[in-house]
Specification:
Elements: H1 8-25, E1 40-44, E2 47-51, E3 56-63, E4 66-78, E5 81-86, E6 89-93, E7 95-102, E8 105-110, E9 113-119
Antiparallel strand pairs: 1-2, 1-9, 2-3, 3-4, 4-5, 5-6, 7-8, 8-9
Length: 128
């Protein structure tokens, strides 16, 4: 039995689709002025969330033997919550306590986990 050959046109389309997806994965809208405090490297129990001022997100969470990772751009904010993903594939991050100061530290509660900003922040790098 002969295996059909994949034509150059099909290869080109597949490559272009992959390239576009890779570009979209890195795209995020810059953080709105009223959300600049979200920027930074946030860590909590079994969770790490990096939010760049350019809207990029890198997220890792461990629950038992399960590990979830997301690297994509912020699509939009709805109130304090935000959506991260590409096209119709988006994950909602529920923010019950937006970024705020507690003493000298910045805190935020996302998906039920209290996070502390350990680095970064828009115009506030030294205070985290």
């Amino acid at each position: 039995m002969k295996i059909p050959r994949v034509g150059n046109a099909v290869k080109r389309r597949a490559f272009l689709a992959f390239a576009m997806l890779a570009l979209l994965a890195g795209c995020g809208e810059p953080l709105p002025a009223d959300k600049r405090d979200y920027a930074g490297d946030w860590q909590g129990v079994n969770m790490r969330l990096y939010i760049g001022s350019d809207g990029t997100v890198s997220y890792t969470r461990v629950r038992g033997a399960s590990r979830t990772s997301i690297n994509a751009g912020i699509q939009r904010f709805e109130g304090a919550n935000f959506f991260v993903g590409v096209g119709p594939l988006a994950t909602r991050f529920e923010v019950t306590k937006p970024p705020h100061r507690v003493g000298n530290a910045w805190k935020m509660t996302v998906d039920g986990v209290e996070l502390t900003r350990v680095a970064g922040g828009a115009g506030d790098d030294r205070s985290a």
